[in-house]
Design a protein that fits this description.
- Helix 1 packs antiparallel against helix 2 and helix 2 packs across helix 3.
- This protein is globular.
- The protein starts with 8 loop residues before the first strand and ends with a strand.
- The chain is built from three helices and nine strands, in the order ββββββββαααβ.
- 26% of the residues lie in helices and 23% in strands.
- It is of the alpha+beta class and 151 residues long.
């Protein structure tokens, strides 16, 4: 079994898609809530297979509460952060405004949009740091050749 492509998981408590993390040493697989700026999760993830009828509709880019498009990547989106290898769940959902930038592959306009709607009171250096983190992820996302799903 390829540890980078197991079935997707969602949290049984909040119905949000979970991100897969693979340990660097023991290659243990765990699931975590998305790292959304300004969101503190009040419970531990309770991974269960994705149930499309229960899955929360949230933009994977800006965290908006409605989505209009779904993008699947042709390759895995994998990032190493500290002792973990993060394998981001797909498909990637996008709201109307983010979907336009994904379709056009306008990385910097997508980053501008996402950073502009970040919740909380981040100062300029914190916003710059968050933008750099997101840029690393989105460059990998675009390199994985996202294609809009039908239906």
């Amino acid at each position: 079994m390829n540890i980078f492509t197991p079935g997707r998981r969602m949290c049984d408590v909040c119905c949000v898609a979970l991100n897969q993390h693979v340990g660097a040493v023991f290659r243990d697989v765990s699931y975590r809530h998305p790292d959304w700026q300004g969101v503190t999760w009040d419970h531990d993830p309770a991974p269960v297979p994705v149930d499309p009828d229960r899955l929360a509709e949230v933009c994977d880019f800006c965290s908006a509460g409605s989505t209009v498009a779904v993008f699947e990547t042709r390759k895995a989106v994998v990032m190493v952060q500290g002792p973990y290898t993060n394998v981001f769940s797909e498909p990637w959902a996008a709201c109307e405004r983010c979907a336009v930038h994904v379709r056009r592959r306008t990385l910097h306009l997508l980053l501008d949009r996402v950073v502009a709607v970040l919740p909380g009171n981040l100062n300029r250096p914190e916003r710059r740091a968050r933008r750099a983190e997101l840029k690393t992820l989105y460059v990998k996302f675009f390199a994985a050749d996202p294609v809009e799903s039908e239906g």
